Amino acid sequence: MTEGIVVINRFFEKFLISSLLLSGGAIALTPVLPIPPVFAQSDEDTNIRVYKSASPAVVSIQSRSGNGSGSIIDSKGLVLTNAHVVRGANVVNVTLSDKRQFRGVVIASSRNPDLAIIRLEDVKVSLPTIAIASFSSIQVGQRAFAIGNPFGRFAGTLTTGIISRIDRDRNFLQTDAALNPGNSGGPLLNSRGELVGVNTAIFTANSASSGIGLAIEADTVKKFIASARQGAIANIPQPALASPTVISMGGQAITSVLTASDNTLPDGSYFKAYQFQGTAGQLVEIEMRGNGIDPYLVLFNAAGQKIAEDDDSAGDKNARIVTTLPTTGKYTIYANSYEVGQTGSFSLSSRLANHLGSVPPRRLSDRQVILQEKGVLGLSSRILARDGSRFDTFSFNGQAGQVIQIDLNSADFHPYLVLFSPNQQLVLENNGLPSRKQASMTLELPITGTYRAIVNAFDRSGQGAYQITVKRVK
Q1: Domain range holding 391?
Q2: Of 160, 172, 417, 444, which alpha carbon lies 20 to 30 A from 265's?
Q3: pTM, to two decimals
Q4: Helix (H) or strand (E) holding 61
Q5: In 3D, which of 316, 309, 333, 320 has the Cα closest to residue 285?
Q6: Sheet holding 438-444: strands in order across?
């Protein structure tokens, strides 16, 4: 995982025979004072040096899939991370160690290996980078350093350990350096501050870190980057199809089997393809449930553009896509498995959705409710020029000193909630994390007048149904 050579300070005493005296047949050895030892760099100094060298090039990543970490590998703005960190997203938010934020576009993604590359937009100056070490230089017992953003809340955290094991069959490094959710995609480093692995998983029997972390080793990382630069890896392109099975939205559920004779996506995973006719503005729900496989869904429009993808939204590793169709035309569903090479049976169901999942309807007797509206971010929504995300606006009257709560819920997209005061000043905003299904705020209104609540998506891919509620707390 991470190469780090353990440097141990040792004192070496050297004795010289300064004189040989024959006295009673014995040889007397006269010791000379030890030569002052050459001190190796202390563990503490090494920790500090590695952190100072590498941390400026370690970033925090926010996407619809959650939080993760990454490494800048090109001064023009290429970031290396895990594919599962950016799963389902074309655009992510990337924060550097100096708090600068960039919009990042996912330009390459692979489930095997679990790696992705993000290109940062509007990079004006050269960025710090992390060099990648050679796998051949890694040895069990070498020191390992991990830098990342555990739990999405502690950016720039350094943990240390050793390379505990090298799995040459699966191209993994094992380390006892502490890794937690949010470290995914971050670098595992050697004592020279070089990347020897990309932290990707924790082996544990419970939800806590167990001291067994896994990282994708450096040579696999190098091969992935080289293929991505050559255009051999894209962000899930639509494969060519002969004759997909035609289905009707809301029809009877389909049962089928993924087999080794099926077509494959670029990562080698098997899939079955289904096609349906959709209308712009329709809210559709597609669910895939597996038996012996980990279902994965990808949805493309008639132009071959990916509209949505999902892994586990239906629970128990089952997949569900709920999205608003952007145009009228034929859509293609790829019923797939998350793990490459998986075969097994599954069921696929689809329907037109006209509800918002678990969002409760308004109780008419609740006099605390100031505003409650349902809507859809879609073609009729406005576009935020800064990042291309869609938004709708709602107004309500408030009194100075009044305490209110605003809840924005969506089962369809990652919501972002913003509130402006009557004098057009930003009052508060919530990015919908860590829930990614709800953005909420509770506050005391500063002045009397008409407030504007902005219903926004976390990134430009966000579309679908939502409900916003504004109510008095006291």
Answers
A1: 369-472
A2: 172
A3: 0.55
A4: strand 58-63
A5: 320
A6: 369-377, 464-472, 403-409, 438-444
